[in-house]
Amino acid sequence: MSKIVIYDTTLRDGAQGEGISFSVEDKIKIARKLDDFGVDYIEGGWPGSNPKDIEFFESIKSVKFKNAKLTSFGCTRRPKFTAATDPLIKNLVDSGSLAIALFGKSWDFHVTSALRIPLEQNLEMIYDSVNYLKSLGREVIFDAEHFFDGYKANPEYAMKSLEAAADGGADALVLCDTNGGSLPIEVGDITETVCKRFKTVVGAHIHNDSGLAIASSVTAVQRGAAHVQGTINGYGERCGNANLCAIIPILELKLGYQCVPTGKIEEITELSRFVDEIANLLPDERQPFVGRCAFAHKAGVHVDAVTKNESTYEHIDPGCVGNNRRLLVSELAGGSTVAQKASKLGIDLGKKSPEVKAICDMVANLEHNGYSFEGAEASFELLLKKSLGKYRKLFDLVGFRVIVEKRGPNEQPITEATLKISVDGREAFTVAEGDGPVHALDNALRLALRQFYGKELAKIKLADFKVRVVNSREGTAAKVRTVIESTDHAEAWSTVGVSTNIIEASWAALADSVEYGLLKHLPK
Questions:
Q1: CB–CB of 147/177 below 8 Å?
Q2: CA–CA gap between residue 41 and residue 99 (Å, rounded)
Q3: What value does the mean pLDDT of the chain take?
Q4: Beta strand 396-405 pairing with 296-297
Q5: How far is Cα 152 from Cα 504, in angstroms, rounded to an integer?
Q6: Backbone angles phi, psi at 131, to 5 degrees
């Protein structure tokens, strides 16, 4: 089994994506997780380019990695310096990283238009920088910036840039599609040409501006590259970088390469969600392999076939990447979906049983009235338990009142929720404020339930809240559908509520969400 080197640049290139900002503590947490997962290189940032990266490289010195090599990133020396005197090169050396990724120009257009120096001088800068760092005992990975565009414009000069790095002693030559505009067939052909020319390890660093970064990275490996650079979840500038959460499963499960230690690929879904959580981003549910929708089945024909043999509508076993199969409930789903859901609750029902038919009819009627259970499996599970007599009521609503007050044109609104619930005949009355009606209701409900289910309640966190108008032609009298996503950090679940009153719809989703979470953690 051939080994493919996995080089992660989430902390540097990924952090350049819009809406992403990692603290030093965030970067250290992600670096530890990446090391545990088993990537070969972790690019920590550009030492000296900003205070955060300076602090990161100082702080990370106390962390011992078991799998990965921490890598610093920077450019070749500047025209007015030698490598030994350039402060930017000194920052790379002082970072303490044993591996250094050094980028240099390989496209003649960039040399003459961006650097505005003679072509030969650029080659001297590449050689001098690589050779100097090698003389200090550092591993040097040369990132040939804009290589594919440069090769297509002037193949002779692009190759000369690699020769300068190789002559300087570079340990790897990484071909970069920096603008993300090359096609996989171009990447493959050019990579194969480079691999035939050089004995040095060849890698690929592809951006996703054409939506082809995964395909191009895989093609590069098939044509000889043994080193792949990318980011977790495809974070990166503009449209992002090559997504390692797809590249690694493709290479390992479909092409037979080894990318991470044996068995670690089963943790890639967890890794994907961990990094999203640290980045404070909602996960891309439709992301291949690791997204919540990656193995979700809605159509009745699909569900029926999958319950008989998973390979009918799944290209891999979801467990291979640590993901789960999900059978979605909707008016399009048949009895097989309901029967499968019931089996998870320990209830054996035939897909043509009267109970299943009644539940299917109920779902169809509810969806006709605006409900959607395909993204709210927790609400459906509660509905299923109620229909089959397996439901355990945890609390009853006695009543609530929500007041929103604004005391002047420049003042922020004040929201207050008053709530009364009953638990086994014992009433709890609470008042709480919040940043809006739903937040205030959530705070009031938590205050009320704390005396009954405090330990279990502490594990539940509201993660997302969405509102959609169901029948927009009704204007302000339209029905709205609210979906609330909650998590206990081990699992995420969604619940739904529908009403012409947005507060009522929100309460229905909120109550289901909390109740589902409590039932998960309370003794059976």
A1: yes
A2: 8
A3: 90
A4: unpaired
A5: 61
A6: -60, -40
* For the chain, domain boundaries: 5-261, 296-387, 396-521
| pLDDT digit string, tens, across residues 225-284 | 999 999 999 999 999 999 999 999 999 999 999 999 999 999 999 999 899 888 988 789
Please give the average per-residue pLDDT across 181-191, as a whole number. Answer: 98
For the chain, give the number of residues: 524
CA atoms in the 13 A half-sphere facing the CB of 455: 4
Give the model confidence (pLDDT) of 109-130 as tens digits: 999 999 999 999 999 999 999 9
Instruction: For residue 246, give both structure tokens.
Output: 């797809």
Contact 62, 96 (CB under 8 A): no
Retrieve residue 17's tokens: 């994506």
Domain 5-261 has CATH 1.10.3720.10: no
CATH class of 396-521: alpha beta
Task: Match 């990724």 to its residue by tokens.
Answer: 101
Say yes or no: do domains 5-261 and 396-521 share a fold.
no
- Rounded Cα gap, residues 170 and 469, in angstroms: 58
Strand order of the β-sheet with 396-405 is: 396-405, 414-423, 426-434
* Conformation bin of residue 137: beta by default, left when phi > 0, alpha when psi is -120 to 50: left
- Please state the pTM of the whole predicted model: 0.73
480-487 sheet: strands from edge to edge: 461-469, 480-487, 492-499
Q: Torsions phi, psi of 462, nearest 5?
A: -75, 120
What six digits make up the tokens of 72? Answer: 């610093």
pLDDT band, residue 374 (cuts 50/70/90) = low
* Pairing label, strands 5-8, 227-230: parallel
What are the phi and psi torsion angles at 499 (to 5°)?
A: -170, 165
C-alpha dist (Å) from residue 321 to 33, 270, 279, 289, 330: 16, 9, 21, 7, 27
- Cα–Cα distance for residue pair 436/430, rounded to 1 Å: 17
Q: Pairing relation of β-strands 41-45 and 69-75?
A: parallel
